[in-house]
Amino acid sequence: MNTKVLYVDLSERKSWVRDRRDLFDKMLGGAGVASQLLLEECKPKIDSFSPEAPIIFAVGPLTGIYPCMAKAVCLFKSPLTGNLGETHAGGYFAVALATAGYGALVIKGGSLQPVVVKIRDDRVEVKTASSLWGLGTRAVDEALAEPIKNGLQSIAAIGPAGERMVLYANVIVDVHRHFGRLGLGAVWGAKKLKALSIIGTKSIPLTNPQAVKAFYEKVEHEVVATDKMAKYHNLGTPANVLELNALGALPTRNFRERRFEGAEEMSGERFAETVFRRKVSCADCPVACIHLGSLTKTFAPEHERGRVEIVKEERLVAYNYEPMFALGSNLGISSPSRILELIDLCEDLGLDALMTGAVLAWVTEAFESGVLDEKTLGLKPKWGDPDHVYPQIIMNIVEAKSPFYARLAQGVARAAEKYGGRDFATSLGGNSPAGYATGYGHIVGTLVGARHSHLSNSGYSIDQQIIAGKAKVEDIAKFLVKQENWLYALYSLVACYFSRSVYTPDVVVEALATVGINVSKEDLERIGRETFHNLYRFKIQEGFDLEKEYIPKRLRELDTPIGKLDPQTLKKIIAQYIELREREGLKIRREVGLEELLLPQRDSE
Which domains does the chain have, with CATH numbers? Predict the structure, then answer.
């Protein structure tokens, strides 16, 4: 197990290494180790954009060894929520960092001019990168790519959105993956960190190669020869479109409706027929869940006038369910090419597609209802975007074209606080929810989750069990706690969320034993629980108060397959969740009760 932590100081342009075997022995790696480092390195109440605000990356003890162990976790202070920033990325990043010889990377300080951090095994450089500033993420990747004979390179970069500190700017990894959500790109922009290149050429030592080989074959069989992950290879998560639409749980036009008349046209099946070109994988993963669609654009259109044959360029754009929902049904758009165009724009600018979709949906509904006017917007948005104004709105946000667009760059909740329309500003914990109108589990799960994501606790899955008659609403709180504790054990490995049906507690215990790490299922549960507690302690330290968080009317009275949600039932589930967590020793409850969550007077503008 690699226990070295690499520290990089952008202010001083220096680096050093510390061996933190104490942390890795206790917390395995990934989210576990990163959570401890965050509490150590991040000063309480520090500004997210302070040079001293740390960025912490970590990989796991099985990274580069077993299938689907190809994720890296990043923790930071989120400028969007003011508390925990947590994001996971695939691509080549994790394996490159591991084969460079590190279990974690901590970036501190800030530069006065644009820089790129270059790591090649033991050599670490902070180099001026003024020529890269202003470029889109694809151009940065092309500029930094190096021919590698032995080893692996990963390139992570921000686009103009991160440079201008849009609070939901992403870091794009290896063109098609992301450290997405919660504004990591904006933190990089504040530090003038344009890109990070990691080249790893070292081998990962094994104490018992034969045991690893034998168990690898067993795990690989589960991954590729069973149906446990077949969905992700075949259509990928876009298969969710028709499934959720049939269930009556596909959010449409800003969560106003739960079925979309254009679902068939924007389905994974239709994407596969019309725009799909190829699949790619993260490092050391045989699944190939990354589906790439073809987006064709006229090359230098100003020079093509009058030509019989118009020269076009083809760009391959990764698509999956979440951006398809956010920039598709959520906006009333069904055309695969139009959705792909919006995804591509977000990718190159370095924007979180989910929050961008939530902002565009709020703007459209606010304009439609009279909360906003054409004078404020300078444009007239409509569902389905028949006049193609959404790309212009996105550019206006990134360029802060006016005070209104500068406010949109702070996220949908802050925009609604200032301009109105708070009832339908779809935000939970400061983050925009994923595309599931399934029920109480998804809403409460997103609200209570450490990173306010459906990936925190799979709340939508307990909803689906309730719809099928296999669970009850009374089971939700217990499910969320149990799921969070186990997922954060997996995130300490760092396993891909899609592989959770393969990596059961028994499988994880056996896999770790092959690399000389002897833990029990109880140890794993302790690591997951303690990791979650660490993250929540950080949130509370930074001012997060679950009992004061606001659920907008649109989401607390959401129409779902089990009927319209009841605010009082939401309160009850949240109270049950808090009680379960406090029994574990995590203090969440404060003097104020749950009334703040659902105060009706906060709906009035």
Answer: 4-200 (3.60.9.10), 234-421 (1.10.569.10), 440-603 (1.10.599.10)
